[in-house]
Amino acid sequence: MDKLLVYGQQKLMGKIPISGAKNAALPLFAASLLTSEVLTLHNVPPLSDIATMAELLTCLGTHYKSDNLSRDEMTVHLQADHVENLVAKYELVKKMRASILVLGPLLARYGHCRVSAPGGCAIGVRPIDLHLKGLEAMGAVFELQDGYIDAKAPHGLNGAVFEFPIVTVTGTENLLMAATLANGTTTLINAAQEPEIVDLAECLISMGAEISGHGTSTITIKGCGELHGATHKIISDRIEAGTYALAAGISGGDVELVGENLSSLLPTFLETISRIGLDVTPTEAGLRVRSTGSLQPIDITTAAFPGFPTDLQAQTMAILCLANGVSNIWENIWENRFIHVAELHRMGANITVSGAHAQIKGVQQLTGAQVMATDLRASFSLVLAALSAKGETLIDRIYHLDRGYCNVTEKLADCGVCVQRVRG
Ligand code: EPZ
Known about the structure:
By secondary structure, the chain is an alpha/beta fold. It contains 15 helices and 24 strands. It has a 4-stranded mixed beta sheet with strand order 22-23-1-24. Strands 2-15-17-16 form a 4-stranded mixed beta sheet. A 4-stranded mixed beta sheet has the order 4-5-3-14, covered by helices on one side. The structure holds ligand EPZ. Ligand EPZ binds next to helix 1, helix 5, helix 6 and helix 13.
């Protein structure tokens, strides 16, 4: 397993190109199953999760072609004109839970499919009951057999009014995609409002779907008989942008994040890091984020968009380890998303966890150590801590990092920071 060697006390200075959003790309790949024509996606990030989704779609029978436009960007062409195998295998679903996103499109287009039930993962139990309840409201029937969800829509899917009892991102995406091919109108109440949902809806509209209200908590979808091919550019990855903003802050650096609409993608986060003491200024190409020297403690509660994103919680905790006082974080989305704390302790952090609450007492200095990445975002929190630490840090299990951050060593090197991938 590869490791990452990070030399401490290095400042990020320069420009970071922000890649396309992984969590927008994954549902967009699944949306290609809704038509027999070609869906072309620009600004696709070269990540291992994207490769897993491409493998899943290929196994189903989709034609997949990718062009590498640059180090950080691909264009892909997906054509689901010969889907013969309607089974999403356990081997792929267990690798990446977002594989569940093929359920809605396959059911809507073919009336049946078999998708491995995703298990839990490090950050929580991660049920999919609301995906299933919503599709049931549209006429689907599910049976669990041998760890697989056998899905059928014997009379096709019909438009319905469905209210999510809690906000779910991929749940909203699955229903949104399914509803585009259903008979009649579907209304999704208490829908997720994340920018990735808006991006998916915009792409579906360019494929011929009739959708309104995306970006608000009520989305209305008028089902139509079929969708056609389209070309779509994926939005910038707000979580990658936020992560590198924190890298500038924790290292005492100054970076320009180059990407589109970054301010509107990260409203609460940017306001929060300004309160921590980072200087954030919009530029023509994106955002400039600069350390001002001191870090202030702060209280954070994670929430669905437009609230503070859970996917930036671990990285923000790393910077708060060095703040001048006591900070508090309440993690409201995932029940087990403080696993990075034990690793930060090994680097000298002073954090106490009680249930969904973490109290972080700022320390003067972190120190390098051997640590282990436990999930995708947690792994970058260790990179951030390591950048500020005294000495070297060796981070094990960085395959987690590769799932959601592309070309980390190269992007950091562009900003004068040396980290080394140690092959193993
Ligand atoms: C998406 O996961 C993201 N993944 C996650 O990003 C992100 O952390 C999460 O949304 C929250 O923002 C993708 O977009 C591929 P949810 P998702 O359904 O859709 C509960 C990353 O690091 N729930 O919005 O799986 C659930 O347990 C990843 O890139 C149910 O109870 O999350 C959680 O408490 C990690 N029943 C809450 O809802 C359901 O049927 C929100 O989960 C579905 C969800």
